[in-house]
Specification:
single chain
């Protein structure tokens, strides 16, 4: 029998994505900045002209975080073993360690401030009650269990994130193998239909608008879209990704001019994330990217502290300086955002990062102690 040499054709599939995707971290900074711009624009009454034309749609930028979460969570955990081997407890513990310490710290700051203002006779829009504290502490305030945004209102999205984490973890436990694109496509369609119907019943144009009124549903379509984007990234090379990224940026430039833009933003967010993930190894070392990556690393702190600082900046400034209203709004925005970044760096290095590391160490020690006990038996 003669020997036959078989030469395999080179695979046309792109190389696997890198484990570290720095450009996605940088995107988090721009997302946090866009949310800040929206709140500054709306609270300070900035006219929608010039660069501020894009601020009105910043309320939908939370959904960029949601799509990004789906992408990153599936990138890190989506190909792991399912069932008991998935490690549901560790997965949820790491998610809690990531968001809960700073969330609780900011909740307490808001609670002390609001109770103090009420004690000194300041008129508040609504009084804080015990259920507000319980709902916020349990991170269920995005499920229509209160009558408005409470105790650091922006934290409704943290509640929504925990909903998606819990749903993903449970899914991985009960599936025999990691769900593929067909499942996530069905999940996107079904969750979009349900979330849209519920949002319409609440008087909204679509599911990208509710916050405390079932914002926990709002995240699910975006999260599923993020997972599908991650699956698609395995089949997109560097050059197509570059064109996709340019098209996404061009589309976003025009779309964000409309303060009511909503669903049209989702595919643009997905395209931008796909391009950034695929191009990350090429651009991560470009000049200035390191700064953006650091700002992305502290972006959760930026998101969590910015509302409080905006509130204090506006109220204290007006009382201390008679010329306050004569200062151009763009100058105010620059100054207060610099203060927010400084506060973000402080909260990240003093609260967020140390607490996360400590909590994760506790899990590691507990697991190591449990393993040692099993081995000794």
């Amino acid at each position: 029998m003669s020997d036959v040499s078989v030469v395999s054709a080179p695979s046309s599939r792109p190389a696997p994505l890198a484990s570290e995707l720095e450009l996605l971290t940088a995107i988090r900074f721009f997302a946090a900045f866009w949310v800040f711009a929206f709140h500054f624009w709306s609270w300070f009454g900035v006219p929608s002209v010039g660069i501020w034309r894009a601020a009105g749609s910043g309320a939908r930028d939370v959904d960029l975080f949601f799509v990004l979460s789906g992408f990153v969570i599936f990138h890190v955990y989506g190909q792991r073993a399912t069932g008991r081997a998935f490690g549901f407890g560790q997965f949820m513990w790491r998610r809690i360690a990531r968001v809960y310490p700073l969330h609780m710290a900011m909740m307490l700051v808001w609670l002390v401030m609001l109770l103090g203002l009420a004690a000194f006779g300041f008129a508040l829009g609504r009084q804080v009650n015990l259920w507000d504290v319980i709902a916020t502490a349990l991170l269920i305030q995005s499920w229509h269990v209160t009558d408005g945004l409470i105790l650091n209102g922006v934290a409704w999205s943290v509640s929504a994130e925990m909903t998606a984490y819990l749903a993903f973890g449970v899914l991985m436990v009960f599936c025999r193998e990691p769900p593929g694109w067909r499942f996530w496509l069905v999940a996107l369609v079904v969750s979009s239909a349900v979330a849209h119907a519920v949002a319409r019943s609440q008087g909204y144009a679509g599911f990208m608008h509710p916050t405390w009124q079932f914002g926990g549903l709002r995240i699910l379509p975006s999260f599923a879209l993020g997972v599908l984007t991650r699956l698609a990234a395995d089949h997109v090379g560097t050059r197509p990704a570059a064109w996709i990224g340019l098209a996404a940026l061009a589309g976003l430039f025009f779309a964000v001019q409309d303060p009511n833009a909503d669903y049209v933003l989702l595919p643009l967010f997905a395209a931008l994330i796909l391009a950034a993930a695929r191009l990350s190894p090429l651009l991560a070392r470009a000049p200035g990217v390191g700064v953006l990556v650091y700002l992305g690393e502290i972006s959760y702190s930026t998101y969590m502290v910015h509302a409080l600082i905006l509130l204090l900046y506006a109220n204290i400034g007006q009382r201390l300086f008679g010329f306050w209203d004569s200062i151009p709004k763009t100058i105010h925005a620059s100054v207060v955002f610099a203060i927010i970044i400084a506060a973000s760096a402080f909260s990240y290095h003093v609260i967020e990062q140390p607490a996360r590391r400590w909590l994760n160490r506790q899990w590691t020690r507990r697991f190591a102690a449990g393993s040692a006990g099993e081995a000794a038996r």
